[in-house]
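Following up on my earlier thread - several people asked me to post the actual chain instead of describing it. Fair enough. Here it is, all 237 residues.
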Amino acid sequence: MARRSTSPDGSKVERRKSGRFPVAVPIEVSWRDPSGVMFKEEAVARQVNAQGGSLEMATYPEIGSRVTLTNYLSAETLDARVLATPYSREGVSNGIVVELVISSESFWGVSLQIKKTTAELQKLEHLLHSEGIDLRMLKEFRDAVDYVRTAATVVQQLRERQLNSRDDDEVISSLVTERIRRATNLCAEVLTDLESGKISAETKGVDDFLRCVEQTHDQLRPLRVRRESESYLATRS
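Reply from S.P.:
Thanks for posting it. Predicted structure:
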């Protein structure tokens, strides 16, 4: 493995090969101190890429130590080297910076993949806009990007709540609200296609869509009636 350059104080200089992405991945870090004593410490990966990342943890191995990382969610293990600790570099606090001995994106799980995909989609959106693509197609693409971005945020929030043993009802409620918003916008697009004659009796999926709309209407109508009744009673009291 190529040797890293050193700073004036003798510590290794980190040369980050790609941008890091925010995640919340539970990790177990194990290592031996210079006397051979084995340590295991729980950590949370916060900013990562295929080469390594920063881990929040209470007890730190020494800089330069070889550590073994275990992803609690997948049980996958990888070896890494400690590049920085709060005692060796300014800007590093509440944890360590590690470099994976063998680069891996999959080790950090789905969170990193979602973050990278969102970033790539945003770049592609800017490219499509600069090339003057049809505005309606650009809107379709932007809606898809927004959905991926929302999904990434929800995944991050759910993981953080799991790690902190917090209730996830609020996050799920927010996700349902977003789903209703997207469904409303999609129905409006379908209505536009109907009015412009782009949808006919021969269009594939029309029967299934109509059936779904009717079932949704039947399920939602009692909720609306109940809300109107409660609102009426509230004004009378």
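Residues 114 and 152 are 6 Å apart (CA to CA). That should answer part of your original question.
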